[in-house]
């Protein structure tokens, strides 16, 4: 969905001189440097100069492929997200969704990326390029949940008329709302209550939950 990092024009001398292999190796070094700096800061102290220095290249190389520091950081997070998308297939829609929710919520607790990702989401509201990268960042996880739900329909766990896109939005809607506002927990209890709320007809054997209780208790002020 998103656009890949901009590569040098294939007819330019730089492209002909370095070749594709060297360019990809340099791109990998830049993304690794960005991730390493995210692991030791909250994103605010990172600059294009610091990424370039850590990668051992000139900052003009970064600007050749990315328009801003934010684009580099989001692309680095996107690159890692591609490698970490959970795609369970246990034969149980509840178990699969719970594994995805737990993984997503746990990832949001990582101090190495959470503050930077929040900042990048805010910047994406003003930067169309970042907004496009952010859509790609979320697309793979949305697709994984769609696959889980569609397999459940095929197995007969969910009715054929299930609104798959709406369930995906509900699952990730709660995640992004709590992740961005930080007003309530993203933990295993929340993941369990969320999945059981999304799939009440399926979970007839689950442990009974007090229906009078708030399924998503808040912390702090609303």
From TrEMBL:
InterPro entries: Homeodomain-like_sf, HTH-type_TetR-like_transc_reg, HTH_TetR, Tet_transcr_reg_TetR-rel_C_sf, TetR_C. Gene3D superfamilies: Homeodomain-like, Tetracycline Repressor, domain 2. Residues 47-66 bind DNA. Residues 24-84 form the HTH tetR-type domain. Keywords: DNA-binding, Transcription, Transcription regulation. One of its GO terms (molecular function) is transcription cis-regulatory region binding. The lineage of its organism: Bacteria, Bacillati, Actinomycetota, Actinomycetes, Mycobacteriales. This is Putative HTH-type transcriptional regulator. PANTHER family: HTH-TYPE TRANSCRIPTIONAL REGULATOR RUTR, TETR-FAMILY TRANSCRIPTIONAL REGULATOR. Residues 1-24 are annotated as: Disordered. It comes from Nocardia cerradoensis. Pfam families: TetR_C_11, TetR_N.
């Amino acid at each position: 969905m998103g656009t890949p990092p901009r590569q040098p024009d294939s007819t330019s001398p730089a492209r002909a001189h370095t070749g594709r292999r060297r360019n990809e190796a340099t791109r990998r070094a830049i993304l690794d440097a960005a991730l390493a700096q995210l692991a030791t800061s909250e994103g605010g102290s990172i600059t294009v100069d610091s990424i370039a220095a850590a990668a051992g290249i000139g900052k003009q190389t970064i600007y050749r492929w990315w328009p801003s520091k934010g684009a580099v950081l989001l692309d680095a997070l996107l690159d890692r997200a591609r490698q970490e998308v959970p795609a369970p297939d246990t034969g149980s829609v509840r178990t699969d969704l719970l594994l995805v929710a737990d993984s997503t919520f746990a990832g949001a607790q990582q101090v190495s990326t959470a503050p930077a990702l929040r900042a990048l989401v805010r910047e994406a509201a003003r930067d169309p390029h970042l907004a496009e990268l952010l859509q790609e960042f979320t697309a793979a996880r949305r697709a994984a949940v769609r696959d889980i739900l569609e397999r459940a329909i095929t197995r007969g766990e969910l009715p054929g008329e299930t609104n798959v896109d709406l369930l995906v939005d509900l699952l990730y809607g709660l995640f992004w709302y709590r992740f961005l506002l930080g007003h309530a927990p993203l933990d295993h209890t929340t993941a369990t209550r969320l999945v059981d709320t999304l799939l009440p007809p399926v979970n007839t054997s689950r442990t009974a939950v007090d229906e009078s209780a708030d399924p998503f208790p808040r912390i702090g002020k609303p």
